[in-house]
Amino acid sequence: MAENRRRDGIPHLVLVPCPLQGHLSPMLHLAGIFHSKGFAVTLVLVQPASPRVVTSWVSDDFFLESLGGSGSDIPDVCEMDLMCFLNEVNSKCKLPFRDCLTRLRMNRLKGHKLCIVYDAIMYFSAEVSNELEIPRVVLRTSTAANFLGLSMLKQKACLPTQDGSAKAIRELIPAMRESDMPVFDKFCPETTERVLAQIHESTSTASAIIWNTLQALERTPLHRIQSSLSPPIFPIGPLHKYQAQDPRRCRRRSLFTADTGARREEDRIKCMSFLDSHTPGSVVYVSAGSLARLSRSELAEMAGGLADCGQPFLWAVGPSLEHGDDVAGLVPSGLELSRAAGCHHPRAPSMQGLAVAWAPQEEVLAHGSVGCFWTHNGWNSTLESMTEGVPMLCWPRVGDQKIIAGFVTRVWRVGLELECDGDGGLERGRISRSIKRVMVGEEGREIKKRASEMKETVELALSGGGCSSQFLGKLVDFIQLL
Ligand code: UDX
Question: To bridge 144 with a disulfide, which of 57, 156, 221, 233 should be the other Cys (CB 3.0-4.6 Å)?
Answer without folding.
Answer: 221
